[in-house]
Specification:
8-stranded parallel beta barrel, binds S-adenosyl-L-homocysteine, binds iron/sulfur cluster, alpha/beta
């Protein structure tokens, strides 16, 4: 059933420790019922910070001339994927700035094929490489990627315009989500919470957008101002507690409203609170994306201020991770892709509709 906007606004407006605890508890019950309490891990490779876009909020936007740009080589990326296999993470996420040039497209295709080969198809691959043409999405899907993350950032078109230069287009980004679905990907999107100018009603509309677009996976996190962006003036007034609560509330309300989608507990939560990741799981998220990028590149991938784990190697992180997850009474879905249950429901529904039409 389509969620009711008034109910969403009410839930998103929850305040006070007790009320928030009750909201997270409710979301957790729904998570247990629909997706269980196994956390699925995706090793995150931040493949390159070269980006042709200039989103006003982002620390690696093309207009930031103080960033040392890098691109990880095929060999290094393959080594990182192998590390995921050793850690028994079921999947990897390949993320980078947006590029549409041919060498880049071919490089990704080669990397996806290589990871599939080296892991004997064991590692699932999610891509997060921005807006592309249909044939590019198709090429990468055929190479072996099966999930794609493309955040809409906000479903409010006016706010989207305010956050981006004039040549960044909401309709184009939305159409990309449709193209991804057409190719057969499990489609992930998401928004930032606490954006300048964003209201609670906007967030409620975002959830309705996820519902209407039949989204399979969500990656959402608090907006954190970065010193080398037009939003640097917000650094002084940034309130980490408010921002954390809004991020957690959004996860909880999405879980309550959408039930069987995969929801990631994102690094941005951890950037503003040392236990942000666990709090995200307790508020309804069921996916974690441990950063496995070689530490020598991490300083170059600062989308926002205070990104954690700059010097923490993947091995150190892995040692800590288990402890933290077991401590909140959850298990880890090692060696599993942990696909979105919503995706299979949507596919089966389509199949049964086709059968009844025949
Ligand atoms: N270039 C790709 C993927 C990398 S950016 C793309 O844009 O889709 C991944 C996400 O980082 C973005 O979707 C955005 O939601 C998030 N992000 C960027 N700047 C941020 C900031 N200042 N605070 C929080 N999240 C940010
Ligand atoms: Fe580039 Fe993505 Fe950052 Fe926008 S959000 S500037 S597309 S890396």
């Amino acid at each position: 059933m389509r969620p009711d906007k008034k109910d969403l606004i009410e839930l998103l407006s929850t305040r006070g420790e007790e009320n928030l605890a009750a909201l997270y508890k409710k979301a957790y019950e729904i998570k247990k019922k629909y997706v269980g309490t196994s956390v699925y891990l995706r090793g995150l490779i931040e493949l390159s910070n070269i980006c042709s876009k200039n989103c006003y909020y982002c620390g690696i936007r093309s207009g930031n001339k103080e960033v040392n740009r890098y691109q990880i080589s095929l060999e290094e990326a393959i080594e990182e994927a192998k590390l995921c296999l050793d850690f028994h993470y079921g999947s990897i996420v390949i993320q980078a700035g947006e590029r549409e040039d041919k060498p880049w497209i071919e490089f990704i295709t080669k990397l996806v094929k290589s990871v599939k080969e080296l892991s004997d198809n064991q590692l699932g691959i999610t891509l997060s490489l921005g807006e592309q043409e249909l044939d590019v999405y198709q090429q990468w899907f055929e190479a072996g990627a099966h999930r794609y993350l493309l955040r809409i950032e906000t479903s409010n078109r006016k706010l989207y315009q305010d956050l981006h230069p004039a040549d960044h287009n909401f309709e184009h980004r939305l159409n990309c989500l449709h193209l991804l679905r057409q190719c057969g990907y499990q489609v992930g999107t998401g928004v930032m919470t606490g954006l300048p100018g964003q209201t609670i009603e906007d967030l409620a509309n975002d959830i309705l957008f996820f519902y209407d677009e039949n989204i399979d996976m969500l990656g959402m996190g608090p907006f954190i101002p970065h010193h080398n962006t037009p939003f640097k003036y917000l650094i002084d007034s940034f309130n980490p507690i408010e921002s954390l609560n809004m991020g957690l509330k959004m996860i909880a309300v999405c879980r309550i409203a959408l039930k069987d989608v995969n929801i990631a507990s994102t690094t941005a939560l951890q950037a503003i609170h040392p236990e942000g990741r666990e709090l995200g799981l307790k508020a309804g998220a069921n996916v974690l994306m441990p950063n496995i990028t070689d530490t020598k590149y991490r300083a170059g991938y600062q989308l926002y201020e205070g990104k954690p784990g700059l010097n923490e190697t993947a091995i150190q992180f892995q040692n800590e991770l288990e402890k933290h997850i077991y401590a909140i009474g959850e298990t880890i879905g090692y060696d599993q892709w942990g696909d979105s249950k919503h995706f299979f429901k949507r596919i089966n529904k389509r199949k049964s509709e086709a059968n009844t039409e025949n």
